[in-house]
Amino acid sequence: MKTPIFPDVFSLREEHVLITGGGTGIGFAVARSMHDAGARVVLIGRREAELAKAVESLGPGSSYLVHDITQLDAAAPLIERITKEHGPITSLVNNAGIHLKKPAIDTTPEEFQRVLTTHILGAHALCRAVEPSMIQRKHGTIIFMASMASLFGIPQVVAYSAAKSAMIGMLRTMATEFSAHGIRVNAIAPGWIETEMSRKAMEGDPARRTKIISRTPMAKFGDPSDVGWAAVYLASPASKFVTGAVLPVDGGASMGF
Prior knowledge:
This protein is an alpha/beta fold. It has one domain (13-246): NAD(P)-binding Rossmann-like Domain (Rossmann fold). Helices cover 45% and strands 15% of the residues. It is built from 9 helices and 7 strands, in the order H-E-H-E-H-E-H-E-H-E-H-E-H-H-H-E. It has a 7-stranded parallel sheet, sandwiched between helices. The N and C termini lie far apart (47 Å).
């Protein structure tokens, strides 16, 4: 009887994944799914208590380092340390982010810059740090966590929307530059997922939640694991001919009906 290959094409047994903002929410869901698929995972973030709790939950094959991705000059030393202690990174998930709900006219340059630094400059610094090793081995995947805010207009999130839109441009440029070297670069654009960040974004705004449900064909919020398993697909051999793509995981919200 022929041995089924279905599980193997989604296996991450040979992968070593770095996930930013991996201690909670969507980042932790990605860590959980990738770990379940066989990957070794390293979580980074600013809150050690959350990271330690996440690693304890994941078990063997997981670790963490406290790191602030806005400290751009620290990206290369971080990757060097991880490589020395745990081996080279084969997959990078740029998930860390901050949210700012504020009218565009009231958003200050300092607030705008803080959002851009976290989502764009921090992600770029880590990509620069991991890519040389990936190029040398001719193997690697980079996943950006985009957003519905990068696909259509959402009020009161001008800085966040700008950052997530810039992220899509960055991934497509990187895909054209690095895909020939065996590095695939893609993004996931989650819709409205039940996380602490999404709940905070809708605090005191029940009409907004109702509007989201009404314009989502599946008429519900997603689960963080929906994004986690999408990340497994993009990091696995199952997507070996997929690069430069933005995968909506949104219950149909981006169809624009």
